[in-house]
Amino acid sequence: MTLSRFYPIFDNIRWLERLLPLGVKLVQLRIKDTPEPELRAAIEKGQALCRHHGAVLVVNDHWQIAIDAGCDWIHLGQEDLDEADVPAIRRAELKLGLSTHDRTELDRALSLDPDYVALGPVYPTILKKMKWHQQGLEKLTEWKALIGDVPLVAIGGMSVERAGGAYAAGADAVSAVTDITLNDNPEGRVRQWLEVTK
């Protein structure tokens, strides 16, 4: 599967219900601090919504539930990777996306033959506190040279206006979070994203 150029990340199902009908084809569900029964129900519903709309769901972190729900993709951060059973993920034939921030993490990620590598934060982000400051577009170009044919996802502080620069620097896909969720008109913003990422 070719990775869609636009890759939004949402923290609850309501966003999928609102925005999948607009034509989003790749979406990550990143739910934290939720009891397992609710989490399981959300991931199952997310998978059903994505199938209905011809989209791909990427589940953040919760690999066992993703396997149980018949999902196709899992995304793991470096901390998640410490606890995940990667052979089990591969046996279930899930595709695997991995977060990276420095060369050590990139080497670790590449040793696992990922289906994409994410680099961030490209720009300062308000989403979560991180020990890494902005990586910049130059780092995207460096990463792309290092990973070759592996798809590269740019994340962190991304906006419609910054997307072009990320693609030019080597990103295959651009991930957006607060540029959509904090926008006064999320549907309108997603339409703009779909336009610039055609």
From TrEMBL:
A single GO BP: thiamine diphosphate biosynthetic process
Entry-linked InterPro entries: Aldolase_TIM, ThiamineP_synth_sf, ThiamineP_synth_TenI, TMP_synthase
Keyword Metal-binding: yes
UniProt-listed Enzyme Commission number(s): 2.5.1.3
CC terms in the record's Gene Ontology section: cytoplasm
The entry's keywords: Magnesium, Metal-binding, Thiamine biosynthesis, Transferase
Pfam families hit by this protein: TMP-TENI
All copies of domain Thiamine phosphate synthase/TenI, residue ranges: 12-180
Cofactor: Mg(2+)
Transmembrane segments: none
GO molecular function, one term: thiamine-phosphate diphosphorylase activity
Reactions catalysed: 4-methyl-5-(2-phosphooxyethyl)-thiazole + 4-amino-2-methyl-5-(diphosphooxymethyl)pyrimidine + H(+) = thiamine phosphate + diphosphate; 2-(2-carboxy-4-methylthiazol-5-yl)ethyl phosphate + 4-amino-2-methyl-5-(diphosphooxymethyl)pyrimidine + 2 H(+) = thiamine phosphate + CO2 + diphosphate; 2-[(2R,5Z)-2-carboxy-4-methylthiazol-5(2H)-ylidene]ethyl phosphate + 4-amino-2-methyl-5-(diphosphooxymethyl)pyrimidine + 2 H(+) = thiamine phosphate + CO2 + diphosphate
Record has Zinc as a keyword: no
Pathway stated in the Swiss-Prot or TrEMBL entry: Cofactor biosynthesis; thiamine diphosphate biosynthesis; thiamine phosphate from 4-amino-2-methyl-5-diphosphomethylpyrimidine and 4-methyl-5-(2-phosphoethyl)-thiazole: step 1/1
Family: Belongs to the thiamine-phosphate synthase family.
Entries under PANTHER family matching the protein: THIAMINE-PHOSPHATE PYROPHOSPHORYLASE, THIAMINE-PHOSPHATE SYNTHASE
Protein name per its UniProtKB record: Thiamine-phosphate synthase
